[in-house]
Known about the structure:
The complex is a heterodimer.
Chain A: H1 2-55, H2 59-77, H3 82-108, E1 117-119, H4 121-130, E2 132-146, E3 152-158, E4 161-164, E5 176-177, E6 179-180, E7 188-189, H5 192-197, H6 199-204, E8 207-208, E9 214-217, E10 222-228, E11 230-232, E12 239-241, E13 247-251, E14 256-260, E15 266-271, E16 274-275, H7 282-289, H8 291-326, H9 334-346, H10 349-359, H11 366-375, H12 385-412, H13 417-425, H14 430-458, H15 461-467, H16 487-496, H17 504-533
Parallel strand pairs in A: 1-16, 5-8
Antiparallel strand pairs in A: 2-3, 2-7, 2-10, 3-4, 4-6, 8-9, 9-10, 11-12, 12-13, 13-14, 14-15
Helix pairs in contact in A: 1-2, 2-3, 3-17, 7-8, 7-17, 8-12, 8-14, 9-12, 10-15, 12-14, 14-17, 16-17
Chain B: H1 9-37, H2 57-62, E1 67-68, E2 74-75, H3 81-112, H4 118-129, H5 137-150, H6 159-166, H7 171-183, H8 187-194, H9 199-210, H10 212-227, H11 231-236, H12 245-248, E3 253-254, E4 257-258, H13 260-280, H14 282-293
Antiparallel strand pairs in B: 1-2, 3-4
Amino acid sequence: MAIHCTLLNVGLKEVFMDQAIESGQSLSVRANWIKWIVLTLVSLVAGYAIVLMYAQNETIFALLTLVVVASGVVIFAREDTYSHRYIYPGVAAMVVFIIFPLMYTIGIAFTNYSGTNQLTFERVQTQFLAKTYDQPNSAYQFELYQVENYKIQLHFEKNGENYQTDAFNLGASEPITLAPSNGEKAGTKAAIRFIIQNRDALTKLNIISSDGHPLSMSGLREFSASSPLYQLQEDNITLVSQFDGEILKPNMDAGFYQAINAQGEFVGDTISPGFVVGNGWKNFTRIFLDKGIQGPFIQIFIWTVIFAGLTVLFTLAVGLVLASIVQWDELKGKAVYRMLLILPYAVPAFISILIFKGLFNQSFGEINQLLEGIFNFKVNWFTDPYMAKTMILIVNTWLGYPYIMILCMGLLKSIPSDLYEASAIDGAGPLDNFFKITLPLMIKPLTPLLIASFAFNFNNFVLIQLLTNGAPDIIGSSTPAGHTDLLVSYTYRIAFEGGGGQDFGLASAIATLIFIVVGALALLNLRVSKKQQA
Amino acid sequence: MPIVKSKNEKKRVWFAHLFLWVFCAAILFPLLMVVAISFREGNFASGSLIPTDPTLEHWKLALGIAVTNADGSITNPPFPVLLWLWNSIKVAGITSIFVLALSTTCAYAFARMRFAGKKVLLEGMLIFQMFPAVLALVALYALFDKVGQYIPFLGLNTHGGLIFAYLGGIALHVWTIKGYFETIDKSLEEAASLDGATPWQTFRLILLPLSVPILAVVFILSFVAAITEVPVASILLVDVDKYTLAVGMQQYLYPQNYLWGDFAAAAVLSALPITIVFLLAQKWLVGGLTAGGNKG
Lengths: 534, 296
């Protein structure tokens, strides 16, 4: 070994000497130049992007880019942060993809962000100001004629009077003013199909009637004078309808524009689209006070804890027993057993969960066919809450025991064999060995792993999403919620399932509560593993 | 090995064998059943474990070959399974390479260097790793919507974006690799740096070649993790042609369109390569898993 090392040392010395001679000073100076040019370029590009984002009111994303890029530039520019250069890429990835989404989610929890309230106030106001209405009795019938040089000419008719445009190209953007005509039309009349094909271009035309009103296409055969529906008042928030004089003000509690009466009170319905406003702790109080949310939330929370707890218990029981048997020296063919027993862990979970979904299917599933053949009854695996929960625990134990078994096989090796010899001398049986030696000695090193397993199963989204999707539904819930939903899948359904109106704010509030639970588990885990090392 | 043997030792061995046989049979039942179903006729047929009238129709469909039925009608493959498999392998392969690059450099600094905030960063990474991405999906969606406006190939509905999103999950790998680096003797690197090697050179030319086994473990673990990830992929990917297997396979078992037989063939086809790789690498993986567990 010593000789080998020396040889290697000599070899290394040559490598580094060569590189040092080759590179010399000029190379390192050049490398330094390149570094500074790259850093400057990165700063410039990022700076431009940040200003752009800030100008578009994307303050949070501008801030994120600023923090990530600036810290990177500083770390690579300074010499005394050399070590940080190695961890920067990894830590930056964690900040962008784990920590930032966490903070952003917590931020959403304090807003009314939802399917109906998605845009910023400015964007919503712009949408209102872009609304138009057709002025009564202003419709012009039109016909489109194709003339030479691929140009077109429009002929209009209203109340027996004829107007026409000059010939123009279809993509024209300059204003086109109508002139009175005598009704003579040149070229060939275009079929309705041509109008349909070029509808977008026709809609964009800027045509002005002979008395100065802008006209826009209001049907396949007519243009009409339209004008903006709302006019913005001087306070920059109030909108007045030009159609019926209704006054709209933004209701900052609801996040909608709403009509007001003479006293300035909000009356009538809110008008979509809504905008995002902060609503303080409202989402959190809804979880605990709103009957349609509180009931399912507490029920689902209890089931989540039971599910995670029982999963840990069952996988531990099965995994530890199997590990003890498979490690037994007297047993032949251990390697084969070990491979077969690990198989559920080797098959990708998303496939095996879907396999179970099909096998447990109430009408066509093989498991019910088997039960019917032998015992002559069928089990309602997906419609009966208790059977659905039983099924989930069976499937999750199947999925989870190999991991615990693998861990236990590693840890069992560390139990000194003379303990078992001593117990054999005392005449103890295998059960005594397991409960009095193996289990007590294994529990301590296993504890942090079991806490991690509890935390993982507390948030076992994939299992529920693929197997039951929460079925059967909880009756009387105002959000999508099922008996087998875990808190994570419940949150996911509130945010992404159509029925409840995609309430991102509420979903983020529940997610924030889960963060607290997960954070507590993570800290507990860290403390337990530290104590063990001490 | 215990020296004292009890008289009923033999009985116990037989009992253990019997128990393991019954248990293995129960555990393997679902997997064997799916293989059997993939050879059955139609999507609703029932039958025994060994199909009486085996057919290859589901397998042809899974491999993307149209099937001509007895009545002359043609059944086209319902979903592009091979394309999904390729998407999965592509995303997982590229992800693993980047994850490996990020986590080895991180682990090197954590194992060999002293710098401000080292302990806080290490523990912080471990804690934040436990927060599931499912809960921040709204934020991730908004993030990639925004990224896509500036860098289109990393936006929503792109594989680039998905790979990018997976790069956050390196904390456990950093711990695993760091633990392994700490078992390697420092004297070689010290000798090299005496001879004028920079820290980067000692890392790349000495430490990395010595760490190939653990790098293989981390590569396989992150490969499997990327292939089996469902929630982020199902939010970011929109087009059927962009799906990975984990997103696509769900399409088979909707109540309105229940394709049990076709699913079985596609499931066996796509699970086989991953399962075989896992079983072959099992010995090293077990070491890697426990190393990650005993957070050194």
